Amino acid sequence: MATATPQSLRIFYSLTLLLSSATYAAVSRAGAAAKFDNLSVHELIISSAHRQQPPHPSSHHINAAKRSANILSLKLYRRHSAAGKSNSGHRHRVTDLILRDHRRIAALLHRLSPYYRTDDFGSGVVPGLAQGSGEYFVRVGVGSPPKQQFMVVDSGSDLIWVQCQPCGQCYPQPDPIFDPALSASFSGVPCSSPVCALLSSGHSDSAASCSSGRCRYQVSYGDGSYTRGTLALETLTFDDAVVNNVAMGCGHRNRGLFVGAAGILGLGWGPLSFVGQLGGLAGGVFAYCLPGDGASGGLVFGRSAAVPEGAVWVPLLRNARAPSFYYVGLAGLGVGGERLAVAEEEFQMTEDGDGGTVMDTGTAVTRLPAAAYSALRDGYVAAAAGLPRAPGVSIFDTCYALAGYGSVRVPTVAFYFSGGAELTLPARNFLIPVDNGGTFCFAFAPSSSELAIIGNIQQEGIQITVDSANGFLGFGPTTC
């Protein structure tokens, strides 16, 4: 078994990106965008009954994908699969998704400003861990010997953490809660450590305190959820590669419904994220492909493995008020190959850090400023006038009754970015089933603030590369 530290790591980790002809996305620098795409109605309605299952929590098997001596292959799992909810209907899943989405967005806005407010949708539901409301999980070994845990892959946070014994307050998880007393590599971080100082430096989404000479962390969210515990250096195992001395939180008090995962693998833009701790040896680069139903997805760390040929690149933007977030320069929207009359100013970030557009794996439904959303919705309704309408569902005000159709030809939706890049979405990335009776809804919603968020429904199946060292985000060229 190979071992390494963040300072001496010589092996890059890759999650195999398995290609599928079922998902299509067009990325380009110029030229006409695709006008129509086919939506497979029947396939999406029945897909929830045939989802891929993750390995049993007690299994040490991570993925049987092909690997070489220098490449490790792992798999990403969707949240409902990892939680063992393979037979839940579309209506239940969408209701659950929207409630968790509301919590996630409340948390993002809380981190940007204490003055942001959201609407009251779902406020009476038992809160989830908004920081961990992400949909995608990876299997990681924690400690020595490694104990396998599902961890959320979260591009919107930095701190890596898992629930730990002794547990004063923990939410249910399928794996046994990690016990640091059984790990030979667990080492508490002293208060005098520079790592502890990073928790309160403004470069992290957490805060630090000191107890008996040990650094303690806490992360609180806009919905009242939190994780609190001890900061430590610990070993993470990715199949047969070991990364020593990873700074992570050992959570002894954790509040929230966080079904299916033990904690978070933070991939944000800060120094305490997993990418930040790998530093120059990973080149500041990771890539991911979020799987849809019945598909395989993946995550890649390291410049040599993650940066694809043929990707279309857009600049990443920094926000001093939210240094962990990956902002992009969204400039416009299109329907059916035609650009809509939406001003670029609708998506721009102000000098004070308000507004802008965040790429976030933890938010499901893309949120747009109200005027931009209205233009997109109205443009889509006009272009799809031949589709039979259905009543709205939850936050979705534009739905269609597609029962009885095998497939339908629908107008495409496109994002336009500063610098000329275009991303045309496949139909299944913006028309989603919300019940088992053939109701499909337009998967966008108005934002309660000036912030735009490109969510994971719109990212699914598209290879996305984050090159934080050079300040660019790439789309394509492959799919999953």
TrEMBL record:
InterPro entries: Aspartic_peptidase_A1, Aspartic_peptidase_AS, CND41-like, PEPTIDASE_A1, Peptidase_aspartic_dom_sf, TAXi_C, TAXi_N. Residues 1-25 form the signal peptide. The active site is at D154, D360. Pfam families: TAXi_C (PF14541), TAXi_N (PF14543). GO terms for molecular function: aspartic-type endopeptidase activity; DNA binding. GO terms for biological process: proteolysis. Keywords: Aspartyl protease, DNA-binding, Hydrolase, Protease, Signal. Residues 136-476 form the Peptidase A1 domain. Gene3D superfamilies: Acid Proteases (2.40.70.10). Belongs to the peptidase A1 family. This is Protein aspartic protease in guard cell 2. The gene is ASPG2.
